[in-house]
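Re-running the complex after MR caught last week's input typo. The corrected sequence lines follow. Everything else is unchanged.
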Amino acid sequence: MIRYYYYHVFYVGMINIMVLVPFVLINHRFGGAVSSFPLAIVCGTLYSYITSACFQRFPGLGLPEIYRLFMPVWIANILNIIGVVTWASAGIIVLFSYSNTIGIFFDPEASAYLNLAIMALASLWAATRSSRSVQFTHEVLLIVCTPIIIWILLKALFSPWLNWDAIRLVATGGIRQPPSAICFFAATFVFSGHLNITLFNRLNPRDLKFRFRWMIPIVGTFFLLVSFFVPIGLHGTQAVGDYLYVWSVTTDTLMMKYGFIQRVLYLFLLLYTFLSLLFVMNTWHTGMEFFKACFKKYPPATDEVNVPRINWWICLTLTCLTFAYAYFTNDLVNKLAAEIWLVMRFFVETALVVLMLLFVFMQKKGLQRKQALQRQGGD
Amino acid sequence: MSARRLLSCVAGITALVIGGSLLGGCQLKDIDKRYFVVTTGFDYSDNPAKPYRVTLRLALPSSKVEEGGAMSIVQTADAPSIAEAVRHLKATVDKELEFGHCREFIFGRALIDKDGFYNSMQWLARRRDIQSVSNLMIGEPDALSVASLKPKSERYPGNSLFLSFGNEGTESAYTVTTYLFDLYRRMYETGLDPALPIASILKDAYQIDRAALLDKNKARLYLTPEETLLFNMTAFGTNNTIVTLPHEPLNVVLAVTQTNARIDLTKGKDPVAILKVRVEGFLEQSPPHLLEQNWDGLERKMGKHFSEEVEQLLIKIRDAGVDPYGFGLHYLADRHNAKGSWELWTKQLYPHIRFDVRTDVSIQGSGLIR
Amino acid sequence: MIEQIKEMLGDPADLATDMMDNGYARLEIALFPGMVDLFQLNEYVLKPFTYRFDPDEFRRMLHSSNSFFRGIASDQWSGYLLKGHTLIAYEGEVYVYRAIRMLQITPEETKVEVSLQGPQAAFTENLDFNMMLVRNMYNTPDLSVEDFDPNNLSKSKLALIYDRTKRNETTLKEVRRRLEQIDKGLLMSAGQLSKQLSHAKYRLFPITQITERPDRLCTHLNKGKLAVLLDGSRFAVLLPVHFFDFMYAMDDLYEPTFMSRFLVGLRYVAMLLTLTLPALYISIVSYNPEVFRIQLAFTIDGSRAAVPYPSFIEVLLMLFMIEALIEASLRLPRTVGSTAATVGGLILGQAAQQAGLVSSIMIIVTSVVAISSFVLPNSTFSYFIRILKYAFVAISVFAGLVGVVVALFVMVVYLCNMRSFGEPYFALFQSKAGKASGNNS
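Corrected-run output:
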């Protein structure tokens, strides 16, 4: 089932556009953006390797179950809640940015809440499904979308209007700057697909081997470089800073001469509707499961036919939060929120890596909690 | 259980109907309630209170698509700004204006000369429904007259002008194609300046065989058709052009199928701008048996002639103070965007730069069938 | 005995009863002549009893032959009679003699799932004969059959068939459980059976497949799945199924690989078209005319110029017409059916467009939708798709193109969330996914 792991790696690489990673990076294009790339690549790859290696030692266990193995309940619950906040807020930010993008490019006159409403309802329903269903959905849509998205990226990369001098200017100029922290945090996002293993490890079988891990740096680097440099090549070093939804504008410079849809922009937006919904589904689902893990009443289940009612309540709460967020924010605040989230995510990721290393160490020393051991034995 | 189910069912349907009628309905705007704008023109009226004159050519759709069957109307309004003019125009038509399919935007020559394109671009770049791949051009004598021309050959409104650009329809070597995003990029870019094609009217057709080179706002240099051809080849690598060599009794004309142009700068304190051009093609016109005599020599002669012409053009462009080739950008990239290099380039280097055009002509065949 | 039976059945006119006396012994007999194989009865009961009578031999035959059952409780007599058995009372004991008239001696022609070059035999309405067809085609000792006699009004026998070595134990248990729970009432067709097995009444996609082809059933068994045959129905129920199973015609196995791959692709495209085309039309006309190429926008605009109402009314009108047309030509006798198609398709469509009631593009959309829905090889599945497209139409009215895409997403989630008897319904790379679920549960 190793392929499910790489689906996450792939789509997080592609979704970076929607959490405004290119925007943050491009804002610092003359600052330390480029020089933070090598650091981010090394750091992201390292984190991926460590987490996958650590989780391999706990087959079939999600992060909350591992907490329970080694920690008192109250610490585990605090950590779970941190997970809920991290994941759920990511979903909310993406949902808001994407419904805004859709509103701008499809229906400038329409009510902003309509698009948000239908997308929120769709993700609400999708997120309440069982983990296995979520995983299947993920696979199907990703297999449909990825080739077309990569085709669009390559089409942009090989566009005759791409100005390599501009890219060269930013690349060679930027690499000489000291790396900037915010860019480093933003760039590592591209590699954080491995984070989703925290929940979906529940579905991993005992004999899982993490093969093809060399793909992670390649895939991540590709998406990172393309999503940063191609807009610069197409919009120039100066004008590119004027755009918030920079990739939407970038795909608009492409044309399909013979297609039914001539503007690549629309194809791109339609595909990213799928991807954004997938992202929201995944994040909310993960947040929901983490939240449920705080209560003994809800043991981890991955394939229930009738989902418990609490699923609906949690996701409904998230939907309401999204509306509240949409009501109180605008693009500017959202931009700030996305930046804060990117930073927070990096620290959560670091903490996770440290914790996992600690857990593996404790496991080797046999420092598991007694109750947990008993429960495991009883299974 | 069943009563609860019934209740939830009724509640669901009610919510759906109410929600639906609140959210939808009001936005539904059928295609026949919209006017498709196919060409937009911006002119400079001489009224200082309302300097902008916006011209819209609106398509009147007909169910039959045939040559000369295209129907359209032209509307004009003057206003202090473009946005206001468009709002005002809405009051003169009975349907919603739709810019999504408008891919021709014409700046009147007077506008470019007096006001520049900067203000107009602010409106264009903000309208998200306008395609980034719209064609921009300068209308001569003004945008209104170009926008109101209705060529007889059009199958649907606006098609004729649209097909003139890019490689959609005709692939004319004299037509410079500038897209909206390209103009926007060149408007802000350091060391890369915009160029716009000039469209005028000749009888019942558009004539787009000249180009204007602009600084960040206004036109600095108008090129002749011959210069436009050279510029198009060397700056954009346009294919399907010609290279000529004056010769007695008949000029030698090379029909170019493949053009490659690259710019480069020599290193050092006093760089020389290098333009490498490679053209491939076959002879379309030549005195008989010329090729058999000296193939290599002919290629070299043509290359040399071409290089000289291009160098003249480059010097002319340099003296006009614009840089549509992007030498400046290339210089900055070479200098890794170091501090002060941009000032050095604009103040000292570019105004006196020397050019070295290296043309490599490759004749693929004599063009003779027999 | 005769009196008892008459009392139980209310003395129907088609019940034949007789008391025979050959001078040595007496024999009571009761049967429905229409359901009994009279030749066999004559040969094995009446002849030995009458003119070749030997009391010892006759008794021995009654006791030892496997066509005669003894010791049947009296309250079950009527049940056997109604199924076509003969009741015989001899020397104070009641025997049930099994000589049921076989109406069916040749397989049916395939009618619903026509194949060009595949086997032309289809199931019949006789369970035993159907079992013969299956056994002939799936000729291994691993083929297991379990009989179920549901306690309902029609009492038709059910046979659960599977390959012993390949079946999935959890699925089998689940199906057995559901077969035992079949409710009382009439069970007349495989479609009804599949509905009852599926449990949930409001489902957007079928989780069982109904087929008339023995070869489809056998390939299904070979994949380790189950099938249920119902006596009196010429269709079998296959389960569990996956979404992808509905996209295969049996011909795909028999035709050249490239062609069948192409056809499968065609079916997916057709399914998407049927689902989304009316919704896309509404979105383009009413929300985003700028999305598609300019020529298309102008053509639609031109052809809609005379249409007096909004796009979704137009779509609903035409969809209603085409659904009515399909339904009419399905139920009408074959000879009149083609007239309906001509009137509806040609005359009405042309006239409606010329009168300006609908745009010509809409006529094309409608016909593409109809044709595409016919491309789907399974009629049940095609029904589900046909009804589902209205959901897409509804959302496109409110939310345009974005709504359609979101609806597609919801549909995929729905499909992925479905389980057909415990197996994932819409998961790619199926066999491996099945293994994973086995490991976890």
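None of the earlier attempt is carried over here. The longest strand of chain B covers residues 252-265. The longest helix of chain B spans residues 295-320.
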